[in-house]
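<instruction>
Derive C-alpha cells from the sequence
<data>
Labelled lines for chain and fold
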Amino acid sequence: MTKYVIKRVLSAILTVFLISTITFFLMNLVPGGPFRAEKAPSPAVEAALNEKYGLDQPVIVQYGNYLSKLAQGDLGVSLKQRGRPINDIIADTFPVSARLGGLSILLAVALGIPMGCIAALKRGKAADSVLMVVSTLGIAVPGFVVATFLISGLGGVLPTMGLSTPAHYILPAFTLAFYPMAYITRLMRSSMLDVLSQDYIRTARAKGVKRFFILFKHALRNAVAPVITYLGPLLAYTLTGSFVVEKIFNIPGLGREFIKAINVRDYPMIMGVGIFLAALLVLMNMLVDIGYKLVDPRIKLK
C-alpha cells in the first residue's frame, strides 16, 4: 500500500506539472491581452502594467518564474483585482463552493443508491420504469434547465439568490445533485442486477435469508464499488461548484470567480484556478482508489 501511495503521489505531481505547463502556454497563445478591455489604456500605461506584472519578459522567462512560484505554492496575483493573491481568492471562495458541493454529493448518494437498489429489485415493474425515466431525464437535461425549472416552480416559496440562510441551499444543491443522483441510480441498478445474479446470492436465497438482508448485507457492499469509483471525479467536480449553477443562483463561490476571470482575461487567475481544480481532481482520484481497496480487500493495488 505504501509503495502504491508513493507512486500515485509522484504521478500526481507529474500530472499537475504537465497541466500547468499546457495551461500557461495556451494562455500566452490567446490573442490580445489582459489590459486590452473596452477602455484600453494608453501604450505607456499598458507598458507599465506589463512591466509591473512581468509580462514584458520573454515567454520562457515568464514560464520559469511561474514554475518557481508554483513550486512554493504561490499561484500568483490577480491582474484585475488590484494584485490580490490568487491563493487568498481561492481560500475565500472555495469553502462556499465546497459547502454547496458537499451537500449536493450527500444528497446525490443518499437518493441515488436506494433508488438504484429499488429499481434492481423491481426490475421490469412500474417502479423500475419510473426510476429509469427520472434517471434518464437527470442525465439528459442540462443543469441550467433544471435550475430554470426549479426557479420557475419554487421561486416564490424558496430563495433563489445567494447562500445566506439554510433555505438558500435547497434549490442550488438539488440542481447540482440531480445529474449525479441520476447517474448513480443507473450505476447502482446495473451493478445490483449483476450481483443479484451471483451464486452466493442464490445460496442465501436457498437458505431462506430475508430479502432485506440479502440486499443490504450481502449484495450492497459489492454492488456499490462502481459508485465509489465514480465518486472521484464527482467530488472534484461538485465540491468546486458547478460554474453555471453558481452563476444562475448568484453564489459567491470559486466558479463565479473563474467565469469573471475568463470574461476579463485575468490570465493568472484562470491558470491558478485551473491548476487548483486539476490538483483536486488528481487527489480525489487517488483517495478513491485507496478507498476502493478498503471496501473490497480482494483488489490488489500495484
In short: The mean pLDDT is 81. Residues 86-121 form the longest helix (36 residues). The radius of gyration is 24 Å. The CA atoms of residues 293 and 300 lie 7 Å apart.
